[in-house]
Amino acid sequence: GESVGLHLPTLSVQEGDNSIINCAYSNSASDYFIWYKQESGKGPQFIIDIRSNMDKRQGQRVTVLLNKTVKHLSLQIAATQPGDSAVYFCAERSGGYQKVTFGTGTKLQVIP
Amino acid sequence: EPEVTQTPSHQVTQMGQEVILRCVPISNHLYFYWYRQILGQKVEFLVSFYNNEISEKSEIFDDQFSVERPDGSNFTLKIRSTKLEDSAMYFCASSVSRQPTDTQYFGPGTRLTVL
To answer: How many CA atoms lie within 13 A of A94 on its CB side?
Structure first.
């Protein structure tokens, strides 16, 4: 079936370094992509989104890149901080459906 | 900043019992959702609700599940006869509209443990 998935289950980075979290998706009909952050004991928190007609979008310290040719999405976090430690999910919506389809998640560990 | 709230934070129940999970969506939001996350797994969509009707549901959302907006603020998920495999975190979410650009905001979740 169609799915959104992540390459790496765990990523460890040094505080101050940049982090890159990758995601592959298989649904070519996906037209909207979202990154969520989930801290322990909390619900998913919206970070940034991107439409399928874009290839890059920047937020505060975060950038999302979309490569539709290879169905790949990435989240870049600049100057990673301890507070960035969490599980990051890529997610997608398609075809006007309301449901958000989540990937499996990558755990980001920031080493002080 | 407005938040989605959920109660209780943790619910323990015996298999076969009915449970009701409660949510208070953000006040000006019109679309409401339930998702669940089995420990260590993906967050999965269950159902969306608008104008007192289910607008979309997944295969998981079978006859054991129901949703209701009993008053102007609460949104509930009922599981009629809980099974062991219903043990999960249940997240409520809400959004202003159904447009993809309108973010779905998630609550902190209710951890349901079925014994």
So the answer is: 13
What span, in angstroms and rounded, lies between the C-alpha atoms of A97 and B100? 8
Among B48, B98, B107, the residue with its CB nearest the CB of A43 is B107
Most A CBs within 10 Å: which of B3, B60, B104, as the mutation test of the A interface?
B104
**What is d(CA A78, CA A62) in angstroms, rounded to the nearest whole number?**
6
* C-alpha separations of A14 from A84, B15, B82 in Å: 11, 45, 44
Among the listed residues B79, B78, B73, the one whose alpha carbon sits nearest the alpha carbon of residue B94: B73
B56 to chain A: nearest residue by CA? A98
Q: What span, in angstroms and rounded, lies between the C-alpha atoms of B35 and A58?
A: 28
Distance CA B101, CA B15 (A): 39
B13 to each of A21, B10, B39, B87, how far by Cα in Å? 38, 10, 17, 10
pLDDT tens for residues B50-93? 999 999 999 999 999 999 998 878 999 999 999 999 999 999 99
pLDDT tens-digit map of B21-42: 999 999 999 999 999 999 878 8
Residue of A98, A101, A104, A106 to mutate, testing the B interface (most B Cβ within 10 Å of its Cβ) = A98
Answer whether B80 touches A (CB < 8 Å): no
Q: What is the mean pLDDT of residues A16-23?
A: 96
Q: Is the pLDDT at B103 greater than 80, yes or no?
A: yes
Both tokens of residue B24? 């208070």
Question: Are A97 and B58 an interchain contact pair (Cβ–Cβ within 8 Å)?
Answer: no
